[in-house]
Amino acid sequence: MARVGISDGDSLRFEIFTGYAGKGEDPHLTQKRMYVFDVNAPVRDIELAHVGYQRYPIAKGRLLEVDVVTKREETDREIEQFLSDEEDM
Fold first, then answer.
1. Model-level pTM?
2. Disulfide engineering: 10 pairs with which of 6, 40, 79, 86, CB 3.0-4.6 Å?
3. Helix, strand, coil proportions of the chain in percent (round to 5)?
4. Burial, 30: exposed, middle or buried (Cβ in 10 Å; 0-12, 13-18, 19+)?
């Protein structure tokens, strides 16, 4: 664990990679999480099942969750954007 000083409006991003031995990445569990520091937010613990040490949060502070996207959702967004771009041509 480490103390890190951040200022109001700073963001914190976690990239969590999950996979199975011999099978590769699990797109439904691999994810990106974005938080922003807000001095007016209540202090909270950020805990994710099976991430980090047991009984310890991966982060603690005045953090607001901004975005959570799995690898599968990210791939779906990219496909939709590609198809949208193709239709516009």
1. 0.76
2. 6
3. 20, 35, 45
4. middle
The whole-angstrom separation of Cα 5 and Cα 8 is 10
Q: Rounded distance, CA 81 to CA 71, Å?
A: 15
User: CA–CA separation, 12 vs 28, rounded Å?
Assistant: 22
Query: CA-CA distances (angstroms) from residue 12 to 17, 19, 40, 85?
Result: 17, 23, 17, 31
Q: pLDDT by residue (tens digit) across 33-88? A: 999 999 999 999 999 887 888 888 989 999 999 999 999 999 999 999 999 888 88
Instruction: Give me 43's structure tokens.
Output: 């202090």
At 3, is the secondary structure helix, strand, or coil? coil
The residue whose two tokens read 């991966």 is: 58
